[in-house]
């Protein structure tokens, strides 16, 4: 082995210099127009793709233990020898979208005999290209993946300030792309702040925060993360505080440092989805009425905890209720909207961050099911977790197809 290993950052330039049609898309390296032989002994062309992760402005080496490896994906039929028998590249059918709008059909797992892997991406992709292309050349000596064509790399304007390598490593970028749109979170107390934390880590385009309260010490003990004493003493609006915290990671978080009422609730019109995290029944009723009439899907989150004097302990539940254009007839059964139906948790001012977190996660996971990110076998529209019973109950199912 050379004492001067190849810089992994130079692999892309080297591939381009040699005339390969290369493209970087969603943290993947794509090499287009690779000739191969089909089972019908015909030469066709397809695209090879592999992970191309960046960390600290450096390309992660294959087999570095940071998520990249020696495997690649293939968009065409399974490559064959000139006589139509299949090459041994590791047969693993992968009929799915690897990236948004980029379907693949196979995943290959092959490396040079006696080697642990590849030092950089140039040797990785050329290893597979050579194995596949040589068979096509036996049929037509003039075919070559080095077409000299230049592909315009279009990464797109990501909402994140740095790549989402977690989704790339897990191979779920195409699934994560389902989490899009303009989202509103009404109420930035404990539950709302945990919802924000989860939504901020998805590729949704905009997250609008509505709350007229000031961030104080009681919020610090209920919200995600650790607020400093300076944060508490700043007395800034909750929405401004959370924008400042999360704009370190992403763009598109918008502060609305005021409460919604009958005069400005129309501002929710045009959102793709709304999370309601309010603690007053009359405010909730006003918001729910507007969203139902506007056909805007939303989830209402709430808690009901109380102190049991006999045991000196807390019991109760947290709830997440999904309402859509196709189903809203369950609203009065699950969502408290009378002025005296304020959640007991807020009446007693009990600080319970873990229940806030569970409440938020129920809401976010239900939203992700609604978006098609998670499977949803039972399609319940209400989820309720009882802390003293440690049980999760599912509410009504939709009996008709969603519009």
TrEMBL record:
Residues 181-338 form the THIF-type NAD/FAD binding fold domain. InterPro entries: DUF6791, ThiF_NAD_FAD-bd, Ubiquitin-activating_enz. Keywords: Nucleotidyltransferase, Transferase. It holds the Pfam family ThiF. Coiled coil: none annotated. One of its GO terms (molecular function) is nucleotidyltransferase activity. It comes from the Bacteria. Residues 11-165 form the DUF6791 domain. This is ThiF family adenylyltransferase. The lineage of its organism: Bacteria, Pseudomonadati, Pseudomonadota, Gammaproteobacteria, Lysobacterales.
């Amino acid at each position: 082995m050379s004492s001067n290993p190849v810089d992994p950052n130079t692999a892309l330039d080297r591939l381009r210099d040699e005339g390969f049609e290369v493209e970087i898309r969603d943290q993947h390296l794509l090499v287009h127009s690779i000739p191969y032989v089909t089972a019908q002994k015909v030469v066709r062309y397809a695209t090879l793709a592999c992970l191309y992760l960046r960390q600290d402005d450096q390309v992660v080496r294959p087999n570095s233990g940071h998520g990249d490896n020696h495997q690649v994906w293939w968009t065409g039929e399974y490559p064959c020898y000139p006589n139509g028998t299949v090459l041994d590249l590791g047969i693993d059918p992968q009929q799915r979208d690897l990236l948004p709008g980029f379907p693949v059909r196979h995943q290959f797992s092959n490396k040079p005999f006696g080697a642990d892997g590849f030092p950089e991406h140039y040797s990785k992709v050329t290893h597979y290209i050579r194995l596949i292309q040589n068979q096509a050349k036996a049929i037509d000596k003039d075919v070559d993946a080095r077409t000299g064509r230049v592909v315009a790399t279009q990464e797109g304007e990501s909402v994140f300030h740095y790549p989402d390598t977690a989704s790339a490593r897990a191979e779920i970028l195409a699934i994560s792309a389902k989490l899009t749109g303009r989202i509103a979170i009404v109420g930035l107390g404990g539950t709302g702040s945990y919802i924000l934390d989860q939504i901020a880590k998805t590729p949704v385009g905009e997250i609008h925060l509505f709350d007229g309260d000031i961030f104080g010490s009681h919020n610090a003990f209920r919200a995600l993360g650790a607020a400093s004493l300076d944060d508490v003493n700043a007395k800034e609006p909750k929405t401004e505080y959370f924008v400042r915290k999360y704009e370190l990671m992403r763009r598109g978080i918008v502060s609305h440092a005021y409460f919604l009422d009958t005069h400005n609730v129309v501002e929710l019109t045009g959102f793709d989805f709304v999370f309601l995290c309010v603690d007053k029944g009359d405010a909730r009723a006003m918001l729910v009425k507007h969203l139902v009439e506007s056909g805007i899907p939303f989830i209402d989150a709430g808690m009901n905890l109380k102190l049991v004097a006999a045991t000196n302990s807390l019991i109760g539940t947290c709830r997440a209720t999904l309402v859509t254009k196709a189903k809203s007839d369950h609203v009065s059964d699950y969502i408290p909207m009378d002025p005296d139906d304020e959640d007991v948790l807020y009446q007693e001012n009990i600080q319970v961050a873990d229940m806030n977190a569970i409440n938020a996660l129920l809401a976010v996971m239900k939203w992700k099911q609604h978006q098609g990110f998670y499977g949803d076998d039972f399609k319940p529209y209400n989820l309720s977790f009882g802390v003293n019973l440690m049980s999760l109950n599912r509410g009504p199912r939709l009996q008709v197809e969603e519009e």
